[in-house]
Every structure is written in structure tokens, then in C-alpha cells.
Amino acid sequence: MNAVAVGHSAAGALLTEPRGWEKIRSNLSAAAYRSLITHIPLHWMRQSFLRAAGMRIGKSVAILTGTTIIRPERISIGKGCMIGFDSFLGGEAGITIGENVNISSHCVLLGGIHDPDDPNFGAILKPTVIEDYVWLATRATVVAGVRIGRGAIVATGAVVTKDVPPYAIVAGVPARKIKERSPEACKYELAYQPWFF
Ligand SMILES: CC(C)(COP(=O)(O)OP(=O)(O)OC[C@H]1O[C@@H](n2cnc3c(N)ncnc32)[C@H](O)[C@@H]1OP(=O)(O)O)[C@@H](O)C(=O)NCCC(=O)NCCS
Fold first, then answer.
1. Which residues line ligand 1 (CB under 6 A)?
2. What is the mean pLDDT of each successive set of 10 residues along the chain, which is 197 residues long?
3. Are 19 and 138 in contact (CB under 8 A)?
4. Beta strand pairing status for 123-125 and 6-8?
5. Using CA atoms, how far apart are residues 173 and 129, in angstroms rounded to an integer?
6. pTM for the complete prediction?
7. Separation of alpha carbons 132 and 153, rounded Å
8. How far is CA 193 from its chain centroid?
9. Smallest CA separation from ligand 1 atom 31, residue
């Protein structure tokens, strides 16, 4: 994202691109994680690094190897979440992930867009919120600025461009509701930390 980026955090605070040392630290953290740390087959080591970089990570979380994380200091993940192999978290505008969320492998969460009408090709940052018990199936893509409601499911290969209501199951490009999930199902506590993954 280019330097003129402006947006609002999930809490409504104005967000701008980090500057100076803040930007160097953020970029170095993301680069070191992407090129080296993400490949270390130990959960505690990868998560210790991400926490030191400012990412908020709850208990019993698994972020599997190969994932790329931009602006880790703007991302929070609640307890019991799982993020599969080789996913992409673009945290430029902030990503808030609730509890017991399952993000399958190769998912993409985008942090913003370039303004097509801006002669500087500047970015518009839009925070993303993923509520408790959401499941993003393999290769789902979530564009910036949407809220995926509690317990919703995004089918494999879907591209989410608008808010998803709680307990909806959506599929396709752009994602549309295909059915609903029972709210009664959303009571589990995930704690999936497979060795060496
Ligand atoms: C979300 C999901 C589980 C839904 O499956 P389901 O409840 O069995 O859905 P159904 O097969 O009843 O499909 C209902 C309709 O949606 C369509 N549909 C289902 N999944 C779709 C998808 N990914 N993209 C587009 N359409 C889809 C079906 O074709 C069907 O359409 P029809 O009514 O016109 O025939 C499934 O789509 C999915 O994503 N599976 C992959 C899970 C995965 O990633 N596993 C590995 C990691 S844990």
C-alpha cells in the first residue's frame, strides 16, 4: 500500500500508514516472518515472534506454517483460533478475529484497496472483522472492510465482498448466501496445535 493511505480501525480510530521507525519495525517484522520465521515448525516460536512484533494472539491458537502477515501490530486473534497453511493476512487497516475461528489453508484477508481515481494510486484502508465461530473454507478470499458475523461459513473458493450475517453459509464469486448454519452448533472450544505444522 502507498504512503497516502488513510482509513478507520474497527474501533473507529483514524488509521494512517506507519511512519519512520514504526514503519521500519513493522516491515522488518513482516519480512522476517515471511522469509524465515513462518517456516519454523514450532508454534510457540512463531507466535512468540509475532507477539513481540505487536500482534495480539489468544490462548490455544495455531497459525500454521507458510502464512504471510503484513502489519502484525494491527491484527488481533482471539483464543482457540486456527489459521491454515499459506494464508495471507493483510493487516494494514486492522484485522480483528474473534474466538474459535477456523481459517482454512490458502485463505486471503485483504487490508485495503488502491483508489482507482487517485493520481497517486493511494490506498483506502478498511478494517475487517471476523466474529466468533466463523469458518473460512480453503481458498476463501475476504476483501477489506467487511464484517463476517458470528458462526458464518464461507465456502471454498468464495470471494466475500460484503458483510455476511451471523450463521449464514455463503459461496461463490461474489459470495451469496446458500443456506444457514444452526446457532446451536457454535459452542465448541478449539485447541488445535498439531506438532510440526
Ligand atoms: C461450505 C461447504 C462445507 C458447504 O457444503 P454443503 O453444506 O455440503 O453445501 P451443498 O453441497 O449442500 O451446496 C448447496 C449449494 O451451494 C453450492 N455450493 C456449495 N459449495 C460451493 C462453493 N464452494 N462454491 C460455489 N457454490 C457452492 C452447491 O453447488 C449447491 O448449489 P445448488 O443448490 O444449486 O445445487 C462447502 O462448500 C465447502 O466449502 N467445502 C470445503 C471445506 C474445506 O475447505 N475443507 C478443508 C479445510 S477444513
1. 104, 137-138, 153, 155-157, 169, 171-172, 178
2. 47 70 96 98 97 98 98 97 98 96 98 88 91 98 96 98 98 98 97 93
3. no
4. parallel
5. 20
6. 0.92
7. 11
8. 18
9. 178
